[in-house]
Amino acid sequence: KSPNKHNRVFMKACPMEEGLAEDIDAGKCSARDDFKLRARFLADHYSWDVTEARKLWCFGPETTGPNVLMDVTKGVQYMNEIKDSCVAAFQWASKEGVLAEENMRGCKFQIHDVVLHADAIH
To answer: Which one of 19, 30, 38, 76 is most buried, counting C-beta atoms within 10 A?
Structure first.
């Protein structure tokens, strides 16, 4: 929820599948890959849904780490307008960690729903 309580983002965090963090570190799956090939790799090796895997926004921290941010929303408008802000927040959060200011590892964050205020100024 934003400080002015006009915008809301609902997301869930869950652990990645066993071995995926190691494959990301080894370079078998990265942000530089074509999104269709990356989605096929994730579907074949880790049983991800192909359409959700295509909407993988970024890896973190520092765009190469073993954490992912995914857009799994259905029918939500204006997601492209908030993508940069979400990616920046994800990069910061995955770098600083939750408790001890250490990098997170092996976390999958899925954005499920977004409610935005009609007036863009808010």
So the answer is: 38
The CA-atom distances, in angstroms, between 24 and each of 7, 13, 33 are 33, 18, 11
Question: What is the C-alpha separation between 84 and 64, in angstroms, rounded?
Answer: 16
Q: Residue range 24-52: average pLDDT?
A: 90
Whether 106 and 14 have beta carbons less than 8 Å apart is answered as no
Left if phi > 0, otherwise alpha if psi is -120 to 50, otherwise beta: which for 80?
alpha
Task: List the one residue out of 33, 31, 46 whose CA is nearest residue 87.
Answer: 31
Tell me the mean pLDDT in the region 75-80.
Answer: 85
